[in-house]
Amino acid sequence: MNTHLVLLLAYLVILTLLGLWIGRQVKSSGTFFVAGRKLGPVLVFSTLLAANIGAGSTIGATGLGYRDGLSAWWWVGSAGIGSLVLGLWVGPKMWAVAARHNLYTVGDYLEFRYNSTVRGIVAALLWVGTLAILAGQLIALAWVLNVVAGLPKIAGCLIGGVVMTGYFAAGGLLASAWVNILQLVVLVIGFSLALPTALSSVGGMDGLLEATTQAGAWDFWGNGKSGWIYLALIGPAFIISPGLLQKIFGARDRRTVQIAVTSQGVILLLFAFLPPLFGMIARVQFPDLASQELALPTLLIMSMPVGIGSLALAAIVSAEISSADAILFMLATSLSQDLYRRFINPAATDGQVLRVARLAAVVGGGLGVGLAIILPSVIGSLGIFYSLLSVSLFVPVLAGLYLRRTGVPEALSAIGGGILLLLGSHLLTDGGGYGYFRPFAIGLVGAVAAFAIVHLIMRWRKPGLSDG
């Protein structure tokens, strides 16, 4: 067994044991869901940043950099821009509503603001989309283990599934928050050492500029399929993602939300430059990789000393696992709180809800592993999630926060119109869309238009209403 694999497996064991130990303190659904609403700025910052730097931000974005160059910045950069909106405006307002009305999940908020029908529809949709993003994290981990030790994709997905499910099912948000601190420390140290080492292997920035031969590689705004268009796909998802909002619900006060979320958004904007640079360096050294998503693990193993390479690989693993536990958070809370307690067993005790949440995490982890084995790529699986999330949730959540007279008809029309246009444009154009208007953008515009039309009709039927 090689050194890289031994170190990675040891690190995974440490993560699992730490999460299980913290999980012994979790005895109620309130602690599992929102950590008792006691998380300070450091814990909220670390758990959000760890969740946001995942498979797409490392393996996926490096693959885009390998293919398209610097314009791959927009994959992670769009998440940073969305995070700034969340931290400065949406997050604090959502936290205040959740704290005032003791809401645990985004489903709780949707029923509070609209009704149980909206809650149920969104919960069902998110289960489908969330499994896709969970699969993306596991695919990325499988790529790492494949390059490190030649493990088949199935084995890599299974190992990742066992680790993330083990510690999250035990401790929920509380375990995630503390484990994420360790993961974030490893991630920062690993990438801080890896980037200068990788640059030195091609003669620094000057050497990389001279060695880069692909057309448009240094075009920041767009090249190939990468560029500012990612802002429409990814930005909205990072403003209204249930996994991120529910982590915010665990903050101890409004100021914590503002500081923690905005700070991690700024870090994302800076971090966004790393994956394209890694990808371009890998393109120079390994121009004929079988898959662009092999670029980062191949670069770390083939071009770096064992110590630095292993630490950087552990950083990637940290990124994938930390994002995966955020996704399990969405799955567990959605099933136990939004579906089980609300529709199946309204009289459920706190202990029953906690058991269902843990069971949902295990089932969701298993389904994510199965989907990861089927889906071919990280970026493809993440695209499914971001598209579905944006067109179904973006309009109802923001309209519910800022338009007082918005009601159920508008919310349902936005969800239905967005999903129908997303699917219709995808089928009619084979996923290509019309120019800059990709299916996700068409779906989002459709959701806004459907909402606006129904809202105007409702105002016309009830004269004298006003938003405020």
Report the sheet with the most strands, covering strand number, pairing sense and barrel closure: 2 strands, antiparallel
Judged by helices, strands and strand pairing, the structural class is mainly alpha
- In oligomeric terms, what are we looking at? single chain
Ends: how far apart? 64 Å
CATH topology of the largest domain: Sodium/glucose cotransporter
Helix content: over 70%
Write a concise keyword list for the protein shown above.
single chain; about 475 residues; mainly alpha; Sodium/glucose cotransporter; two-stranded antiparallel ribbon
Question: Could you characterize the architecture of this molecule?
Answer:
- It contains 20 helices and 2 strands.
- It is an all-alpha fold and 468 residues long.
- The protein has 2 domains: 3-379, Sodium/glucose cotransporter (Up-down Bundle), CATH 1.20.1730.10; 403-468, no CATH class.
- Strand 1 and strand 2 form a beta hairpin.
- Helix 1 packs parallel to helix 16 and helix 8 (153-200) packs across helix 16.
- The termini are far apart.
Topology:
Elements: H1 3-23, H2 29-34, H3 41-52, H4 56-68, H5 73-101, H6 106-113, H7 116-149, H8 153-200, H9 204-211, E1 222-223, E2 226-227, H10 230-234, H11 237-240, H12 242-248, H13 254-271, H14 274-285, H15 295-302, H16 306-344, H17 350-374, H18 378-402, H19 408-429, H20 439-461
Antiparallel strand pairs: 1-2
Write a brief caption for the model.
Helices cover 78% and strands 1% of the residues. The protein has 468 residues and is mostly helical. The chain has a two-stranded antiparallel ribbon.
